[in-house]
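Office hours follow-up: a student asked to see two folded examples consecutively, so here they are.
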Amino acid sequence: MELIDYFILFIFGGLAAFISGFLGVGGGIVYIPVIEYYLRKLGLNPDILVKGILANSLFTIIFSGSISSYYQYKHGNFFPKQIIQTALPGIVSALFITYLIKNGTWYNKTIFNYVFASMLLLIVGRMYLTKPSVMGSDQGNNKPLSFGITGFIAGIITAFSGLGGGVVMTPVFTDIFKQPIKKASSISNGVIPFFAVAMGIYNLWDKPSQFVSDYQIGYIVLPIVVPLILSTFIFAPIGVAVSQKTSHGIIRFTFASFASLVFIKLIYELFF
């Protein structure tokens, strides 16, 4: 890798971090295509490409999600009770699915793209076609079981897609539980690091069949993830600050529009 590659990674990492803070989605929507490109460039074998993408994306999300959540706390938009209720079941489901993926060859790049595209289509549809909640933070469905079920499902989606689960949690919290989107994004940002840390530790200790860098720990390729992580410390706080001053409708529209671009890219890869 050359100096320009590290600069590009830093820039895209900044974009992902801003989106993480602004939308509460962890940044995986940006991380995944960028990480895939550089893993291919380094020559990672196709049969373990998906494992590499998932591992490096989720490892990077540890930092973007944690920093975004910290600044949500500083802005007084933090809900630890709901975060724990959502995170604990999701950790169990995420680790279980990750174990199945790592110990088999059934989950290849084509299946991964279909899963990723399906999730984005669902999210885009929900965000464009439903109206944002205008309820206060104490209204809506606050039952622990509801948050637990959402977390369990989000953990599965996280393991399959590498998105961190925010693309599932934020729409569910707003459209089904009728929570304001700023509260929903804060809970999502708080949950995401729990998922990512659990799977990040698992991936660090895993033994891949191929190493593409002298600076690689398990599936984690440090020359790729370090520039992405460094930019997080600058841009995630900016994303959180901007989200606090932005209307619910604009946040939803931005979320759906960005997801639409990634969806179009995936469809092009699958069929053209």
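And the second, which I mentioned at the end of office hours:
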Amino acid sequence: MSQPTLHDFYRPLGNLGPKVSPLGLGTVKLGRDQGVKYPNGFRIPDDDEARMLLKLARDLGINLIDTAPAYGRSEERLGPLLRGQRGDWVIVSKVGEEFSDGQSRHDFSAAHTRLSVERSLKRLETDYIDLVLVHSDGNDLAILNDSEVYPTLAALKREGKIGGFGFSGKTVEGGLKALEQGDCAMVTYNLNERSETAVIDYATEHGKAILVKKALASGHACLSPGVDPVQASFELLFEHPGIASAIVGTINPLHLAHNVATVAKVLRKN
């Protein structure tokens, strides 16, 4: 029997135009192995392994890829790895967080926001990024109310350098505020954590996009014996028509194929 794919289940990315696969590939593990909260250690894949993973993702119908400057070398590796494939991918990157020497630091100024996006364009070898999200440090409302990051992203959108912008935050208030002027919110939503449901509901009512991070609770989802945590997680997620895609950051081809098969099974039932 052939492996199920996600080609039949693409969803609108809010009102931004592109349709995206309900599962997106997170790429932190392509670029960084320090300061990441996963239950098991891992080795960063070499170029051949990364190329094979990206090819598998594409063959399985995944067209959404999620990266960030804070993901170590992720962006600069993706540029060459995706060369000649720009039309096949919807690329999400971020601004606001830098990671070096094992430490994160944040900068939401206009100058840094513009520098960061220009640098991402260069690293990713593209003249536009489909969606850029603010990588919050947790002070969501202060970032949105007191910094220049959102007006700068709005200007970059007008210039055609980014297709849309939004916020990867940590609070309900931040998510709601971010969607008033932005195109997308990235929320934590899984079997253990549902506090940002109101943000998903708001996005659904207003035609805005929702991306989900930590959909599988970063590998920590725990349920009663006999229940498949991956299937239960995706069933919870895709009850919501407003969720465009869940970002899952696996570098294991078997896990990737299993996740795709599970999502296809859940959406077929829906």
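Two things to take away from it. Residues 7-269 form a domain with the TIM Barrel fold (CATH 3.20.20.100). The CA atoms of residues 29 and 251 lie 7 Å apart.
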